[in-house]
């Protein structure tokens, strides 16, 4: 039994992060581990995942190769986490890719497949595996989705980023449905909405092709993945409610970034 008066006696929460080799995922791995969690981070290449884990310098971070487009690799990721740490308390579906800022007829079908396969099918396959494991382990668990442009039902569609937006919109819908399907089971669904961060997902794709004014605004409203992770990590570990959404770029933060823009260092978009 857990001794509530002595946090040191509580077992460390175990967190699996898909897409943990860079950007938000890697920063979350660091911040969660710093708060006592055991972390399994993953990415497409086993070598890169192992290097990312060892660069973070924490014994309780394991790096595992897992391409979320391949269900057997997701199974192996779950099994590696359980073999090393005994259970999984949080599974964060964070792996994501963008695409060039282009109209549909200029995108290769392979790019369309990769974006949907990673951001949508990959997140669902991850959630499915985590559900199977969490429904049968004592204490259940929590499955998170990293949202993105397209997730908000209030956001107007943006030209040039339709496939990415569709992947995030569809994944968001599916996870909102999961929150209803699994209500009361002990497995809870959560959402991370990280705002705008200068990471490879945007810098390698859309950002470099965006109009200068849009990039300038992204620089003003953006924050580093490290800052976002520092804000999210304690809230992830504290989350209790099914359907919880952690939003970084709230109206208050947007207003503050706009007001302080002349004095604040801009993010490099
Ligand atoms: N940056 C932003 O402004 C922003 C805003 C809102 C939401 N997001 C979302 O935040 C999440 C993290 O993105 P980020 O901004 O931190 O970008 P990032 O630094 O490019 O990170 C993306 C991560 O996904 C991994 N990944 C890509 N394809 C994968 C696959 N098929 N299987 C497994 N892992 C894969 C990458 O690892 P490998 O390359 O090692 O495979 C990397 O670790 C994404 O879901 C993104 O859509 C980003």
TrEMBL record:
Do the record's keywords include Oxidoreductase?
yes
Alphabetically list the UniProt keywords. Answer: Oxidoreductase
What EC number(s) has UniProt assigned to this enzyme? Answer: 1.-.-.-
Which InterPro entries does this UniProt record tie to the protein? Chl_b_Red, NAD(P)-bd_dom_sf, SDR_fam
MF GO annotations? oxidoreductase activity
Q: What is this protein called?
A: SDR family NAD(P)-dependent oxidoreductase
Source organism of this protein record: Streptomonospora arabica
Q: What is the lineage of its organism?
A: Bacteria, Bacillati, Actinomycetota, Actinomycetes, Streptosporangiales
